[in-house]
Amino acid sequence: MSSMSYHIPNLLDKMTSTDKDLRFMATNDLMVELQKDSIKLDDESERKVVRMILKLLEDKNGEVQNLAVKCLGPLVVKVKELQVETIVDTLCNNMVSDKEQLRDISSIALKTVINELPPGASLQATSVCRRIIVQLCRAISMTTDVSVQLEALDILADLLSRFGSLLVNYHANILEALLPQLCSPRLAVRKRTIIALGHLVLSCSIDLYGKLIDHLLECIQRKQDNSATRTYINAVAAISRGAGHRFGEHLERVLPLVVAHCQADDDELREHCLQALEAFVDKCPKEVTPHIGTILGLCLRFLSHDPNYNYAVDEEEMDDTDGDDEDNEDDYSDDDDMSWKVRRAAAKCLEVVIATRREMLLEFYRTVSPELINRFKEREENVKADIFHAYISLLRQTKASTSVVDTDFMDDGESPLTTLQQQVPSLVKGIHRQLKERSTKTRQGCFSLLRELILVLKGALTDHIGMLMPGIQYSLGERNASSNMKIDTLVFVHCLLANHPAEVFHPHVDRLLPCLVAAVNDPFYKITAEALHVLQELVRVIRPLDTASKFDFTPYMGEIYTVTLTKLRAADIDQEVKERAIGCMGQLVSQMGDHLQAQLPVCLPILLDRLRNEITRLTTVKALTMIAASPLKVDVRVILGEALPILGSFLRKNQRALKLATLTLLDRLVVNYPGFLTAELLQPALTELPALLTEADLHIAQLSLAVLSSVCHLAQPAAALVQSGFMVKVLLPPVFKLTKSPLLQGAALRTMSKFFTVLVTREILPADRLLAMLLEPVSGDAAGQHINKQAYSSIAQCVAAVCLTDARVTEEMVRRLLRDIKSSSVPDARRTFALLAVAEIGRHVDLSGVEGLRQTILASFGSQSEEVKQATSYALGSVACGNLAQFLPFVLNEIETQHKRQYLLLHSLKEIISCSSERDSLQHYQEGIWDNLFRHCQSPEEGTRNVVAECLGKLTLLHPETLLPRLQSALHATDSPLMRTTIVTAIKFTITEQPQPVDALLRHCIGDFLATIGDPQLEVRRVALVALNSAAHNKPVLVRDLLDTLLPQLYNETKVRKELIREVEMGPFKHTVDDGLDLRKAGYECMYTLLDSCLDRLDIYTFLNHVEEGLKDDYDIKMLTYLMLVRLATLVPNAVLQRLDRLVDPLRTTCSAKVKQNSVKQEFEKQDELKRSALRVVVALLAIPDADKNLQLSEFVSHIKSSPDLQALFDSIQHDSTSDSAAMMDLS
Q1: Domains held by the chain: number
Q2: Residue 1073 — φ and ψ, nearest 5°?
C-alpha cells in the first residue's frame, strides 16, 4: 500500500512532463495499475487521478488522448460516486465545446464510461445516467451544431439500450427532445433519432408509447413531401421492431396508412413502407393476420417492379449468346434507379411472411412459388440473393411441416410436396441460367437453394442432373474461383449424390470425376477435405453393391485410387484431410476390393499405420469396419495379425466412441473372416471383454456379447477357449453377474439370450451345466436376497433361451419349476421366478401336455403374495400363447366364473392378445374375447376397466377394419359413463409410435372418440384428454386437423370450477378436496404435448392466456406451466415478450411465498421446488432478446438479487443452464 502511495503521485507528476513520450508511458502505466483488482485509492488520490485523466483528454498528442480514454473504463468502477459525477459532468461539458477534437474525444470517453458502468439498477449507474441524460437532452436540442447533435443522439441510444429502465422519470423529457429532430433537414440526425426512439420504446410507459404512436400517425397523415413521410414510416417500423409486443394494439390504425403510401410513385417511400410491413408481420403475428393477404399481394406486385429494364429482350440475348455477354448488365446501370430497393424490400418482407405463416404453405406454393421462380432472372445481385433466401425459407417451412405430418396420411390431392414436385422443372430451368453467372454470390445462392430442395424432396433432381452438370463444372473448374464457391459446390454435389439413385449419375461420371480430382489436389485443405468426402460418395455411386448395376466402373477406379492414396500417404496435411482420405480409401476398398487385389498390400498397411495413431485411430476403425462388412470379402490377412492386438488395446481406452466402433469391427471380422482367425489372434481382444460386461454401459455390454456369440461360432477358437478354461473362469462370471442387473432389458437382454443359446447349440457348454449356473442366484433358501426383483424376468428369459435348444431339457426344467411352484416350503421369491420361467418357456413351446400344469398355475392365484399372483397371471397368459386352443377358452371361462380373480385373469388375457401379433392367430376366438371384454366394460373397479380397455385396444389393432367401427358404434349406443370411459381408454391403446394398419381408419373416426372431452361426466372427460395427449405425442397427424374444434374444449377443462371444490371433515380438521384437479392436470399435460407436436396449429396468444391462469393454480399445475413457459420462451419468444408484464407477477408471488413454520417437511420441499422451477422460468425469460429491458422483469431480478437465498438459487440455475448449453454444443 505504501509503495502504491508513492507510485501513483510519481506517475501523475510524469503526466505533466513536456515530453510526450513520458506522458504516454506514465498514462500507460496508470492504466495497467487501474486494471489491477488490488488497487485502492484514497479520496485525495482519486481526485488527483480523475483531474489528471480529464486534463489529458485535451493533450496535444492523439496517442496520449486515446490512452486517457482507455483509463476512464477501469477508473469509473474504482472511484467513488462523487468522482464519477465529476467525470461525467466534465465530459458532457466538453461535448458542447467549440473545439472539434475535444468534442470527439469526449464523446468517445462518455461512451466508454457508459459501457463500463455495472449492469442493473446499481446506485452508481442510476446516478450517472441521470446526470448524463439532462446534458444529452440539452445537447440534442442544439440545432446550431449538427456534429454535437449526432454524438449526443449516439450516446443517448447507448444509454437507453443499457439503462433504459433506470431513466423512466426522464422518458418524457427524452421524447420531448427527440420528436423535433424527426423534422431535421439532416438525414443523419433523423436516422439516429429513430434509432434512439427504438431503444426508448422498450422501457417507456404504455402512456408514453401511445403518445409517441399518436404523434407519428398524425405526422404520417399530414400532407407533406415524401421525404418527411419516409422518416415517420421509418420511425414506426423501428418502434415495431424495438417493441413489437406493445405495437399490436395500434396496428389497425397504422397498417392501412402504410399500405396507402405504398401506392405513391416514390420508390424510396415504397421501400420504407415494405420494411415497415416486414416489421409488422415479424413482431405482431396475431394482429397482422387479417392483413396478410394484402401484404402478400403488395410483395408479389413489387417483387417484379423494374420499370427501367426489359427482361424479354435480355432473355433473347441470353439465348443467343448463351450467357457469354458479360457487358449486358452495364448497359442498364442507372444511378437514379431506386427500383431495386423496392424489389429487395419486397423479397425480404415475403421471406418473413413465409417464415411466420406455416399454415398458408399450400397457398404459398400456388401463388408465391411461381412468382419467386420467375424472378430468379433478377438483374441485381443483392436482390437476387434475397429472392433465393425467400425461396429457401419456403423450402424450410415445407421441411418443418412434413417432419410433423406423416406423409402416409397425405391426401392424394393437392399438397405442398406434390405442388413442389410439379414446379421442380421450372425451378431447375430458372436455376440453370443462374449457374452460368459470373457472380459468385448468385451461384452460391443457387446451390444453397438446390440443397434445401433435395433435403425436402429426396430425389427431386433425378430427371435434371444433365442440366446441372455444366454449372457444377463451371463452379469447380473456374480459374480464380473463391474457396467458398468451390466448397459450397462440393457440399451440394455430395448432397446430390447421397439423395438420388446411383444410376442417374452414371452418364455424367466422365465430366464430374476430373473436377473432383482437381479439387482433391487443391492447395487449400478445406477444399481437399470436402472433395474427398464427395469422392467417397461417388465410389458408392459408380459401383452400388446393394443393387444390380451394369455400369463399367473400372476406367475410373485407378484414378480415384491414385489420388486417394496420395493424400492417405501424406503425413504433413491437415487432420480433416487425413480423416477424409482414410474414409475414402475405406469406401474404395469395400466397394472395389475385388478389382484392387494388387493394390491391397500397399494401402492396407498404411491404414494399419493410421490405426496406431491416436489422432486418426477412430476414423480408421470405421474405415476398416466398412471393409470388413463388405460382401466382397476383401482379403485383409496382410494386416490382421498386427491389427487385432491394437484393437484389443482400444477396448481399454477411456473413449466410448472408440470402444463402440472397435467392438463393431471385431464382430464384422469374426463373422466375415472365420477362416483367418485363431484363438491366439483373438486372445488380446477377448481378454478385454470381461471388463466391458457391466451394467455401467449396456450398449457396450451388448456389443461385447455379440462379439462373444460370433466367436462361439468359430470351431477352433471356441474349443481353445473351453479347453483353456478361459470361457468358464474369465468370460462367463461377468455375464452371469450382468444377468442379475435390474437395468438389463431390451436389445442387451436379447443379445444375452442369444449368447446362451449359441453356447449350447455350438456344444461349448452343456445345457444342464449352463442352467445350473443361471439358476444359482434364484435357487436355494437364499433365493432372491441379493438380486433385484426386476432381474427375475431377465434370468427367466435366459433360462427359457437355453431350454428351447433341447426338448428333453425343456421338459425336465418345466417339471422342476412346477415342483417349486407347488412346494409350500419354497420362498415366495423362488416361486415367483419359477412362474416367470414357465411363462417364458410357454411362450415358445406348447406345454399343454405337461401333467398338472394348469392346476398348479391356478393354485398359485391363492398365494398371499401379490408378486406371486402377478407372476401367476403372466404365466397363465404366456403359456396360453403356446396352445390357444387348449388354454384360451379356459381363460375366458375363468374370467366369467372366478370373480375374485377376474382382475388377474384379465391380465392373462392381455398377455395372450399381446403375444398374438399375427393377424389371424386369434381369428377363431375374436368374438368370444370381444363379448367377454364388453361384459366387463362397466366394472365398478377402475383397475379392471383399465385392463379391459387395454385388451380392447390391442385386439382392435389386430382387426381394425371390423373392430374399430364396433367400438365407435358402442360409444354412440351406450348411456353408461363407465362404458364410455373404457371405450375411450381403449382408443388410447390403439395409438402407438410405430405405423399400424389402424392409423388410416383411426384418422377418420378419432374425432368421435375425442368429442367426449365435452362429456357431462368428469372421468370420461379426463380419459378423453389422456387419449388426446397420447395421440398428440405418438401420432400428431391424427389430431392436427381436429384441433380447431378440440382446443376450445381442452382450454375449458383447464379452468378452476368452484362447484367441484368441497370441504371434507377429518376429525377436528377441515380438508379442501378439488375433484377437478386431475382433470385440469390432464388438460395442462395435453397442452404441453401439443406445444411440441402441433405448435403451428395453436393460437399462441390464446394458449398463453391459459398458461397464465395455470401459474396461479395448484402445485402440480404450476410445475407444468413453468415447464411450458421455458419451452415457449425458446419457441415463440416474441409472443412471450408481449405477455411479460402479466407473467412476472405470478412468478414473484411464488418466489415470495412462505410456508407456515408448523407445516410438514413435504410442504417445505414442494415450496423449494416451486421456487427453483419459477427461477428456471426467469432464466429462460432473460434469454429472450430485449426481455431485460422490461421494467417489471428488471425489478423482479433486482428483488431476487437482494435476497441471499434466492440469489444463491438463481446463480446455481444460471450456471446449470450455461453448462447444459455448453454440453449441447459439444454433442453437436
Answers
A1: 1
A2: -120, 125
Closest to 160 measured CA to CA, from 190, 137, 187: 137
**Within-domain flag for 1084:** yes
Question: Residue 19, exposed/middle/buried by CB under 10 A (0-12, 13-18, 19+)?
Answer: exposed
- Per-residue pLDDT tens digits for 92-133: 888 777 777 888 888 888 888 887 776 655 666 777 787 788
Label residue 247 left, alpha or beta by phi (over 0 means left) and psi (-120 to 50 means alpha): alpha
Among residues 206, 157, 148, 203, which one has the least CA distance to residue 178?
Answer: 157
User: Please, what's the largest Cα pairwise distance for the chain?
Assistant: 116
Residue 1132 has what pLDDT? 86
Share of the chain above pLDDT 90, in %: 47
Helix spans in 673-761 (H): 679-688, 698-712, 715-723, 726, 732-739, 746-761
Q: What is the pLDDT of residue 403?
A: 55
* All cell numbers assigned to 213: 404512436
Residues 64, 20 contacting (CB under 8 angstroms): yes
CA-CA distance, 1046 to 1032, in Å (whole number)? 12
Exposed/middle/buried for residue 855 (C-beta within 10 Å: 0-12, 13-18, 19+): exposed
Q: What angle do CA 261, 267, 272 make, to 5 degrees?
A: 60
In a domain, residue 1046? The reply is: yes
pLDDT tens digits for 588-613? 999 999 999 999 999 999 999 999 99
Write the pLDDT tens digit of every residue in 435-486: 888 889 999 999 999 999 999 999 999 999 999 999 999 999 877 788 999 9
Q: Give the burial string for 210-244 (b: 16+ CB within 10 Å, else e).
A: eebbeebeebbeeeeebeebbbbbbbbbbbbbbbb
Sorted by sequence, the CB contacts under 8 Å of residue 1227 that are 6+ apart come out as none
Q: Which residues contact 1074 (CB under 8 A, 6 or more apart)?
A: 1056, 1060, 1061, 1114
pLDDT tens figures, 8-24: 788 888 888 888 889 88
Going 170 to 171 to 174 to 179, the CA torsion angle's sign is: negative
Beta carbons within 10 angstroms of residue 1156's beta carbon: 8
- Between the alpha carbon of residue 843 and those of residues 388, 796, 912, 914, the distances in Å are 60, 12, 9, 11
* Cell 431506386, residue located: 338
Whether 593 is covered by a domain: the verdict is no
pTM above 0.85, yes or no: no
List alpha helices for 547-678, DSSP H: 554-569, 575-592, 600-612, 617-629, 637-650, 656-672
pLDDT in tens, 1143-1182: 989 998 888 888 777 777 888 888 889 999 999 999 999 8
Where is average pLDDT lowest: 835-844, 874-883, 1200-1209?
Answer: 1200-1209
Grid coordinates 491416436 are at which residue? 614
On average, the pLDDT of the chain sits at: 87
Helix, strand counts (H, E) of the chain: 62, 2
* DSSP one-letter string for 1041-1052: GGHHHHHHHHHH
Q: Which domain holds residue 1045?
A: 991-1098
| 1114 within domain boundaries | no
Residue predicted with more confidence, 167 or 331: 167
Phi, psi of 1065 (to 5 degrees): -85, 125
Summarised one tens digit per residue, pLDDT across range 62-73 is: 888 888 888 887
600-612 and 617-629 helices, crossing angle to 10°: 140
Instruction: Tally the C-alpha atoms within 13 A of residue 536's C-alpha that lie toward its C-beta.
Output: 21
For residues 559 and 231, give the distance between their C-alpha atoms in angstroms, rounded to a whole number: 64
Instruction: Return the number of other C-beta atoms located less than 10 Å from residue 199's C-beta.
Output: 23
1072 φ, ψ to 5°?
-85, 130
Give the model's pLDDT for residue 564. 95
Residue 919 has pLDDT above 70, yes or no: no
Secondary structure string (H, E, C) spanning 1087-1152: HHHHHHHCHHHCCHHHHHHHHHHHCCCCHHHHHHHHHHHHHHHHHCHHHHHHCHHHHHHHHHHHHH
| Strand ranges (E), 839-915 | none
